[in-house]
Amino acid sequence: MRSEARRVIKNLKAVPHGGFYHDELAALGLKPEDVLDFSVSTNPFMPPEGTREVIGGSAIERYPDSRASELTEKLAEKLGVKPENIVVGSGTTELIRAVATTYFRQRDRVVIIGPTYGEYEPAVRLAGARPVHYRAREEDGFRPDFDIINGMLRDTGPRAVFVCNPNNPTGYLYPQEALDGMQRAAGDALLVLDEAYQSFLEAGQTPLTLDERANVIILRSMTKDYGLPGLRLGYAVAPGDIIENLRRALPPWNVNAPAQAAGRWVLDRDKELKGSLQKVREARDYLMRELAALGFTVLPSEASYFLVRVGNGAACRSDLLRRGLMVRDCASFGLPAYVRIAPRSLPDCRKLVRALARLTGDAA
């Protein structure tokens, strides 16, 4: 008799993400190079020049360093922490699952502050734990009510709390005092701060202040910062004992040699990164202004991406894709009336504005 998959696997739903589905493009007669992709929230002005040559020169004939030691040391120096406080992963999503594998037990409660990134819940369920959702309200502009959240944390007694900061897809940035209040209300719970989009903030990344006594894991993404989604690269920063436990949960050689080589290279490209992030912010501000002028409801955002209310997000995405433009349909976030848009170059952004102007004209 054929082996049966675990019930949790059978019931697990795939989480939609931005980016291309190649079969969908093929059905429309399109190739990836034919489409301007505003659905992914990576840095469109990266990677730095020379990165591809570095990748091509990596030693793929040998196993990669299983601890990514050189990359870890460069990150530690840059962040002002010790190497033992960092573990590198194949993107932050791998690290989210490692956190769940390492720390969540059967029937533990894990609080997820939403609407937010969809991969927290599958990680919780795969570990046999139970997700407990708080959902900010549309009528409040998706700003969380911290009195309600803190009451939920005290009442629930969770094993952990997932907070995306700035939040995906709303772009909301949590005030530090709100995070401190949540940590107090959560008691001994593990606070997982997903800071994948911190670099895109106007003020840049929040400096790390690591407390070895704190029950906190900070996740950050080099994939997003340096435009490396095809390589997958992220890292976790936490007290040393937490990092060592996460290492045990991760597979050996989890970060491949080209990714490690690219990571070491881009960390020395501060000037290019700073200039690219300024371009991202300028393009974001342009799009937000122009779409608001067209009559769309554009939500404020501290991140590079932002939400736009279009009435029917799936239809908007489909209409734009037929024109060679892609935005993120937000139905999977529970926001079917919205799309999420991340900037590209200003010429590309102007094409999107013109296309949306035509769509509004067609609808009228």
In short:
With 364 residues, this protein is of the alpha/beta class. Helices cover 40% and strands 14% of the residues.
Structure, explained:
With 364 residues, the chain is an alpha/beta fold. The chain has two domains: 7-46 and 270-363, Alpha-Beta Complex (Aspartate Aminotransferase, domain 1), CATH 3.90.1150.10; 51-266, 3-Layer(aba) Sandwich (Aspartate Aminotransferase, domain 2). The chain has helices spanning 7-11, 22-27, 51-56, 69-79, 92-103, 120-126, 146-156, 176-186, 222-226, 240-249, 257-266, 270-293, 313-322, 346-363, and strands spanning 36-37, 86-89, 109-114, 130-135, 160-164, 190-194, 216-221, 234-237, 297-298, 306-309, 325-326, 328-329, 338-341.
According to CATH, what is the topology of the largest domain? Answer: Aspartate Aminotransferase, domain 2
Shape: globular
Q: How many domains is the backbone divided into?
A: 2
Q: How are strands sequenced across the largest beta sheet?
A: 2-8-7-6-5-3-4
**Beta strand %:** 5-15%
CATH architecture of the largest domain: 3-Layer(aba) Sandwich
Distance between the termini: 59 Å
CATH class of the largest domain: Alpha Beta
Descriptive tags:
alpha/beta; Aspartate Aminotransferase, domain 1; 13 strands
Write the layout of secondary structure elements.
Blueprint: H1 7-11, H2 22-27, E1 36-37, H3 51-56, H4 69-79, E2 86-89, H5 92-103, E3 109-114, H6 120-126, E4 130-135, H7 146-156, E5 160-164, H8 176-186, E6 190-194, E7 216-221, H9 222-226, E8 234-237, H10 240-249, H11 257-266, H12 270-293, E9 297-298, E10 306-309, H13 313-322, E11 325-326, E12 328-329, E13 338-341, H14 346-363
Parallel strand pairs: 1-11, 3-4, 3-5, 5-6, 6-7
Antiparallel strand pairs: 2-8, 7-8, 9-10, 10-13, 12-13
